[in-house]
Amino acid sequence: MSTVLSVDLGGTRMRAAVVDREGKVLLRAEEPTPHDSACPDAFMSLLGRVRDVGGGRGSFESVVVGVPGRVDYWERRLEFAPNLPEGWVDDLAESELARHFEAPVFLANDADLAAVGEAYFGAGRPFNDLVYVTLSTGIGAGAVYDGRVLRGTRSLAEVGHTVIAIEKLIAGEPATAEELGSGTALSRDAAAAGVADGGKDLVELVRAGHPDALAIWKNATRAAGIAIVNLAHILGPDAVVIGGGMGLNGDLVHEPVRDMLREYGPRNPARPIEVVAADLGDDAGLIGGAAWELALGLT
Rounded CA gap, 152 and 192, in Å? Predict the structure, then answer.
């Protein structure tokens, strides 16, 4: 059976899985991301266990590692990752990882990888061109057009870091889409207002109609919606697929985003840009590893 060792490295947890070419997860393992140890020790220990249980060094057609930051696809290394432990970035390069495997190793931006997963195996299958947006601890995005992941020398669609509030930027306050519209922003604003201790508690209050919670949620979803509107103008997709922990609250997220697209998005499109929920949940990146080489045009 043709399989891929697929990895999703996050600031909170790191996961590895054996995935077949149909996008089925056959084996997986997960551990918290340690912030007090060197990257190769902790990270390679997890990969090594899944590699060995999955058949050994030579059992995989490829190894695909998704990372939460800006990837230099030309140099084949991670360039910037604010949510990873300090010192890990320098160790996350294809050349370093390849020493542990007898298969091609690919480093990918995690949102790019999740976009591929949804495009080939999930909610993006009916669409030719799509943007995947993850609303979670941060905000990330990836795009797949005609089966190919959009990328340049570096990973593209880093919409979470785009400035959406110039006055706040000048004042030295949170001003980017991620700083204003992510799960982290929700938790920060809820705590500052004394409304809730975290995003999950806030969502429960929103569903209960708590006025302060509703105001905080509206501000965050509008910020995320502005980011998606900007992507729509720049990339003109057929659909926006929304995932991530915050994004899983589809009934509270999708309609505000649709409203933003109708009001501020591309004018008079022949077909409105659809907003759909991600099908693959947290597994989108892991499953995307099964089609990563296809999305690069290598097979």
Answer: 39
